[in-house]
Please model this.
Amino acid sequence: PCNAACFPRVRRVAIFGGTHGNEMSGITLVNMWMKNGAEVQRNGVLTKPFITNPGAVEKCTRYIDTDLNRAFTPENLSTPSGDGLPYEVQRAKEINQLFGPKGSPDAYDVIFDLHNTTSNMGSTLILESSTDHFNLQMVHYIKKATAPESCAVLLNEHPQLRYATTRSVSKHPVGLEVGPQPQGVLRSNIFESMRMIVKHALDFIELFNSGVEFPTCTVEAFRVHERVDYPRDTNGNITAMVHPRLQDCDWEPLNPGDPMFQTFDGWSIPYAGDGPVYPAFINEAAYYEKQQAFVATRRETLAAAAIRLASE
Amino acid sequence: PCNAACFPRVRRVAIFGGTHGNEMSGITLVNMWMKNGAEVQRNGVLTKPFITNPGAVEKCTRYIDTDLNRAFTPENLSTPSGDGLPYEVQRAKEINQLFGPKGSPDAYDVIFDLHNTTSNMGSTLILESSTDHFNLQMVHYIKKATAPESCAVLLNEHPQLRYATTRSVSKHPVGLEVGPQPQGVLRSNIFESMRMIVKHALDFIELFNSGVEFPTCTVEAFRVHERVDYPRDTNGNITAMVHPRLQDCDWEPLNPGDPMFQTFDGWSIPYAGDGPVYPAFINEAAYYEKQQAFVATRRETLAAAAIRLASE
Ligand SMILES: [Zn+2]
Ligand SMILES: [Zn+2]
Model:
């Protein structure tokens, strides 16, 4: 009987790179660990570094046919394989077979999916559930371990805005987003930040497996609230830029009346919401096509239950 | 008879954007000026804003088949048109017809070609000749007008390393490179810097046309000296990153023994040249495929002759 929430031993962990083929830190780390995995091995755990979208990596482009990190829908995963499928849909089905099936007991325990952003977000852990206490404890551990360097937690649990991620085939999906880094560029500082967070995450798993109990705690998180698009004309062309006072200010409060966009004529467009939001993914290159200038989040304190290893 | 070097009146100026389809400042400015050109009109001058690679702009990619900014070779420009040509070669032939022919008296007087870089180069004017006194006077004027903000002059006159640029169809080709800005991203600060430099350039042309004589002067420039590639393994994969002490330090001296690269194991690789160089295009995204981590330049003081309008 557990006083804490009990979770089974973590036996299989995957580290995904190249879900977007032009995000170079994760691609480089995963390729490095595939050659020599000593750094990511932990007692009793199978750690599998894996390039998820090799076609896009080869071309150094985000995707070939469609965004792999939106492709893990029930429809895609249940559709019969065949030559006519978009590359990433076919790939999603293969990844689901290798690391899932999604939602099943056979799925990998944990998947870390490594991403870069052009936004000035620093290191960010992305969770999909506010009630996955294993993941809440893990991000709490990582945040403490990286301090005083900050590591934000982004919670994408929004009923309409959440999406079917590559890592969602696992029981405990964790996205890691580190920036700013341009697409197609490898920066040593971003590379090292990402590498260190993966190290802390694996250390947590090893501690958990060893029987350490993690007491209740709280986690400061930013919950996805809404997407904000650029101002556009009737042809869909943008008519304003992110305002210089908002640019690079990810995670800082944006209050009603604060400048948000600047038109090409030099006019400011203020934020007109009804309270402070905390923007993230400000001016992310990949989100122009998704009609998103930034994502507005709200701060929230998440409660993590105590956890420990279930008796075996 | 001229005491100064005499040049004919500048009658036709083109402003090119989208030579690389993911460099958003020039694309946005040119699209804006095509809708409303008041800002770039000057007395007695035809100013033509023009998107050079619309196919690549549409896809937000550097190019479709081949780099347009390397395509203006005599071979390409003299090859017969036809359906089998790479998109950018066909496009180069069309641009040469519209704004050249390259090397002919019918060519446009001045072409400004607007580029962005992911490197921390600030604003940079790129010249192809150290003896084009019109251009030397123009960049001298622009440097003074933008001060105290710096505007570097990069001289690519190297017999092997120079390349056949889009702007080279004009009599006085000027490249403008502003960064840092990720590919596919429009930053307001970079947009405004580029806009201001084009304004100063057109003001210079108007002054010149009005009969103002520009006295002899000198221009501090950085001459392209050599390309430096990333360390790579036998498969061509990079094995080290730009060192954090070199990253973002464009135009600062790199001395023999200074750290240049950092291997994934954390080892430093020092610069082993025989004197200081001034790196530019450090960690530029588009240059990974060109096997170039940065371009090493040497400082040089160029002498500009006095110039004025030839009597008509
Ligand atoms: Zn990504
Ligand atoms: Zn360019």
